[in-house]
Specification:
Layout: E1 2-10, H1 14-21, H2 27-30, E2 34-41, E3 50-55, E4 60-69, E5 73-83, E6 86-87, E7 92-103, E8 106-116, H3 119-152
Antiparallel strand pairs: 1-8, 2-3, 3-4, 4-5, 5-6, 5-7, 7-8
Length: about 160
């Protein structure tokens, strides 16, 4: 099982950060390369929600919300990745979790992704994937920091 973790303190209360993260219409503001998100099943804002995220490279990620703890945790499992109508999923059990906790008047955001690769080839692919995920998380946290700076009028 591969695992990548990134953390950052962002300005704003835990509730304010949650408000941004749980507003799926705003996903493209903080998720790198995301262009749109479409609700495809389940409840609109809670565990069991299903949606498709479309990225600027044409990739479509079909995801399901697997954890929803108001103002504390949001997690999704990527069920399938499609490109041009073809399944291009490389890994199994891909789960991304965003945890929030107060840090004074700000919020510590921790983003974690875990996945399994399946066999020796999957292990080799995982090594290459780790750097890409780390970069994605750094961009995601920078985007969220920028949104929160704009929302709170802070500068850091």
């Amino acid at each position: 099982m591969a695992k990548i973790v990134a953390r950052q303190i962002v300005p704003g209360s835990q509730e304010l950060v949650w408000h941004v993260l749980s507003d799926f219409e705003r996903t493209s503001e903080w998720v790198p390369s995301a262009v749109s998100i479409e609700h495809t099943g389940g409840p609109p804002k809670s565990m069991g929600r299903e949606h498709t995220v479309r990225y600027d490279n044409g990739l479509e990620a079909h995801q399901r919300i697997v954890a929803w703890d108001d103002s504390r945790r949001l997690a999704w499992r990527t069920e399938q990745e499609m490109l041009g109508g073809r399944d291009v999923s490389k890994f199994n059990n891909v789960r991304t979790t965003v945890d929030l906790r107060p840090s004074g008047s700000n919020t510590e955001v921790t983003v974690t992704r875990t996945w399994s690769g399946g066999g020796p080839l999957g292990l080799i692919r995982s090594f290459g994937q780790k750097a890409a995920v780390k970069q994605e998380f750094e961009e995601l946290l920078a985007n969220l920091n920028s949104i929160m700076n704009d929302s709170t009028g802070s500068s850091s």
